[in-house]
Amino acid sequence: MGDMKSNIQENKKNNQIIQQKNVNVINVPESEPEHINNVPIRQTNDIRSERKKIEGPAKIFGWICLVLSVATFIAYDNAYTSIDESKEAQILLEEQASTVISAGTILAYSDESGTATDYEIVHSSNQDSTTIWVWDYAAEDGDVIRVLVDGQPITKNIMIKHKVVEITVPSTGLVQIEGVHDGGGGITYAVRYDINGTTYINTAPEGECNTYTLRRE
Fold this sequence. Notes:
The chain is built from 3 helices and 13 strands. The chain is α+β, with helices and mostly antiparallel strands. Strands 4, 6, 7, 8, 10 and 13 form a 6-stranded mixed beta sheet that branches. It has a 5-stranded antiparallel beta sheet with strand order 3-12-11-5-9, with helices on one face. A two-stranded antiparallel sheet has the order 1-2. A hairpin with a 4-residue loop joins strand 11 and strand 12 (198-203). The chain is elongated, with a radius of gyration of 43 Å. It starts with a helix and ends with a strand.
């Protein structure tokens, strides 16, 4: 009996040894997984590094282009809206009328609402009609006007800008410039009458008119 028990215990030990040899345990450290979404970590890190190398210069280039675009726009805008700061221009701003300043002259960077004024224009021309030029002599801020003759509109609504608008009107009668929409700072405009070679600057409140009475002497 003693030998039999000894043989049974010996067989159990041998079986345990065999089982241990046949079992392979693979321990993968949780802190350092070998794959993320089937992509090796080293490869993922390499991709991220390459992206940073590409995106960095691209962002810098984008900012440079933006700065250059803004600078170009400002330079162009300043050149286009060059202000006449001559003595004659200052006189026009103060007296609101000048025979020296030509059509399309820009006199200020921003609107300064002045006094709404009516004028009488006396001339000796035998022509039945004459030309006027209307423009915004300050900031292009969306001011809208329309022109009437003897109380009747002869134009559609005009958004005045630095570029002059040429309009033909009768040489006698009432020429009115009506304020339609104030884009900000008051509806200020300049108008030059060919019939007397005079430029006027004026203010037209919304819904009201400046009247220029043309009369042949």
